[in-house]
Amino acid sequence: MAHVLMAVTGADTIELTDGSAHPTGFWAEELVELHRGLTAAGHDVTIATPGGVRPPVDPGSLSGDDADELRAYLAGIDDLLAHPRPLGEVADGEYDAIVLPGGHGPMVDLAVDPDLGRLLVDAVDRDAVVGVLCHGPAGLLSAVRADGSFAFAGRRIAVFTDDEELEGGLGTATPYLVASRLAERGAVIAPAAPWSVEVVRDGTLVSGQNPPSSIATAQRLVEVLAER
After folding, report:
1. Domain housing 127
2. What does the mean pLDDT of the chain come to?
3. For position 101, which CATH number holds?
4. What is the dihedral of CA 171, 174, 179, 180, to 10 degrees?
5. What's the CA gap between 152 and 214, in Å, rounded?
6. pLDDT tens digits, residue range 28-62?
7. Among residues 169, 93, 104, 107, which one has the least CA distance to residue 141?
8. In 3-state terms, what secondary structure has residue 59?
9. InterPro entries from the entry (predicted)?
């Protein structure tokens, strides 16, 4: 059994380019499928947020045909969501893996959170498993070393693509494009066709492109953890 830290956004709004506030949070399908896949495989999952605030669910992620099932699963883990661990209390090396579900929320807080950055740099240095999904890779932007270098430079990453953002995300109102920002920092973006299921593994880094990739990302993480 692995001990997995699921770092989840605590942001409930994101400021758009016109200055307006857009509701956000974590994307329900992504958190649910990652949590379900990992726990079904016998792994222990701890949810953590910046400051230990309750992670908000993006209301837009509960509008599909699967909304009732997602709400039911979230209700079943409500105690975990209501009492997340503060990221600042997590020690380096404490968890076997760090997993970041998406939603636009991570662009707001996880991307600049120093505690998450510290934990991710430590994870890279000890070759621990890191899993990211959709907009979750925005959290990787926090992983900057003391010398200013990006800890995930040169790593292949699947992420919600610029085309997906412009076609079906926040469009031109998005404050920044996560894939482009990661590429600017030196990550190697490995995009597939928009809205297709895509999971990329680069060593112990596992990344999924979008919500349809949620189940496949969880499955790949389980496979990688089984090798440890």
Report:
1. 3-226
2. 98
3. 3.40.50.880
4. 100
5. 21
6. 999 999 999 999 999 999 999 999 999 999 999 99
7. 107
8. helix
9. Class_I_gatase-like (IPR029062), DJ-1/PfpI (IPR002818), Prot/Nucl_acid_deglycase (IPR050325)
Average pLDDT over residues 216-221: 98
Cα–Cα distances in angstroms (integers) from residue 91 to residues 51, 115, 169, 194, 226, in the given order: 15, 9, 35, 37, 23
Positive or negative, the Cα torsion across 28, 34, 37, 38?
Answer: negative
Q: Identity (one letter) of the amino acid at 85?
A: R
Which amino acid is located at 63 in the chain?
S
Amino acid found at 210: N
Q: How far is 178 from 181, CA to CA, in rounded Å?
A: 5
**Which tokens belong to 38?**
């990992």
Q: How many domains does the chain contain in total?
A: 1
33-69 in b/e form (b: 16+ CB < 10 A) is bbbbbbeebebebebbbbeeeebbbbeebbeeeeeee
130 vs 147: CA distance, rounded Å: 22
pTM of the predicted protein model: 0.97
Would you place residue 110 in the very low, low, confident or very high pLDDT band (cuts 50, 70, 90)?
very high
Tokens for 191?
Answer: 């995009």
Count the neighbouring beta carbons within 10 Å of the beta carbon of residue 70.
Answer: 19
